[in-house]
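Tokens in:
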């Protein structure tokens, strides 16, 4: 896991206190080698980000659940491995997208060789994108540059939903 991002101080102006200077990407993947490759690929990317990782659907749910005194930054983007334990039938994706406070967070599903049926199921569950995992590290670096540039820089995302 990377270091916590620096936070904007009180001199940043109204509404900006406690806002991370870099976006947080939450990666849910059971494979330690896959998490390390994504971390390294993101370091090669176009801009800095704060990578957080979890290894199961339950850890993902726990990480996203607001807890008193828990100071985890809200992710700007969630990456979920198709084979994540606890994500059977895209339960993790469905859980995020059915929660009014989380549904606006873009969710990208990563799969080794996605089938048409898996793609349909991912989008039906609410995934914003399904991407085939590259085979080589250089292809992964290129992919991370492209889709983080899109989701974290180019896309205009809606504001966070108000807590209910």
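Residues out:
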């Amino acid at each position: 896991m990377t270091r916590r991002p620096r936070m904007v101080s009180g001199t940043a102006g109204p509404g900006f206190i406690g806002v991370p200077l870099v976006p947080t990407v939450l990666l849910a993947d059971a494979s330690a080698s896959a998490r390390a490759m994504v971390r390294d690929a993101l370091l090669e990317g176009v801009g800095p980000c704060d990578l957080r990782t979890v290894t199961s659907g339950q850890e993902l749910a726990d990480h996203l659940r607001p807890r008193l005194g828990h100071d985890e930054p809200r992710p700007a983007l969630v990456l979920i491995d198709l084979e994540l334990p606890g994500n059977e039938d895209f339960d993790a994706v469905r859980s995020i997208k059915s929660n009014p406070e989380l549904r606006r967070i873009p969710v990208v599903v990563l799969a080794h060789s996605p089938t048409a049926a898996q793609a349909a199921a991912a989008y039906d569950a609410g995934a914003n994108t399904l991407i085939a995992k590259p085979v080589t590290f250089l292809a992964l670096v290129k992919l991370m540059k492209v889709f983080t540039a899109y989701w974290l820089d180019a896309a205009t995302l809606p504001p966070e939903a108000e807590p209910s």
